[in-house]
Design goal:
6 helices; 25% strand; 5-stranded antiparallel sheet; flat; alpha+beta; 5 strands
Length: 194
């Protein structure tokens, strides 16, 4: 893990979408109950970043006094950029004819939302609304919207570290599901299923 970027405040909500990975379409009735793999899960959060409190004691928060929330925004934004060193190295190799152009791989990103939800993710959407600026036009407050796609073993494989983290996430979900109270057909007014 290269860097931990804690959010200043817990988001008020986390939106999740799970897209079922079923086999075939409705015409393949023999496959109706089969799954190809884990669902494609997406997560969206809205985070707020504010330097107001840090600006009240600028001596102990030099970065906030000098740049506002730019350093925190830059740390988040770098999750979706290849490094400048990688870009320069690839350009040099391509210029000398020794590199086959291939997409650059980023470090593994984890979204940690409690000890029960640690997810390997790829950023899919990132937007920033900067608000309230200081005299040097540094943003003092910002709202960040992050869209992420959970990377499963279908994406990373079992041998990849992220695949192992996904499996731990899935196993934690299974353990939590076992704690949910089970219902009975009688409570629904049904005696038996035929």
């Amino acid at each position: 893990m290269l860097r931990i970027i804690p959010l200043q405040y817990n988001p008020d909500s986390v939106s999740r979408t799970l897209q079922v990975q079923g086999v075939g379409d409705n015409s393949q009735r023999s496959e109706a109950l089969r799954l190809r793999g884990p669902p494609v899960e997406t997560v969206r959060i809205e985070a707020e970043i504010d330097a107001t409190d840090e600006l009240e004691t600028p001596g102990s928060h030099q970065a906030a006094a000098e740049f506002g929330v730019f350093p925190k925004l830059a740390a988040l934004e770098l999750l979706i950029y290849p490094t400048s060193a990688t870009l320069q190295r690839n350009n040099g190799l391509a210029g000398s004819g020794t590199l086959e152009i291939a997409p650059m791989e980023t470090p593994l990103t984890l979204f940690v939302w409690s000890k029960n939800r640690i997810l390997p993710v790829r950023m899919t959407d990132f937007s920033v609304t900067e608000e309230a600026f200081d005299a040097a036009l540094n943003p003092i407050r910002a709202k960040v919207s992050l869209g992420m796609r959970v990377l499963s073993i279908d994406d990373l494989g079992f041998a990849h570290r992220g695949g192992g983290i996904f499996m731990s996430y899935l196993q934690a979900k299974e353990q939590l599901a076992r704690r949910a109270p089970s219902g009975a057909l009688g409570t629904l007014g049904i005696g038996a299923l035929s």
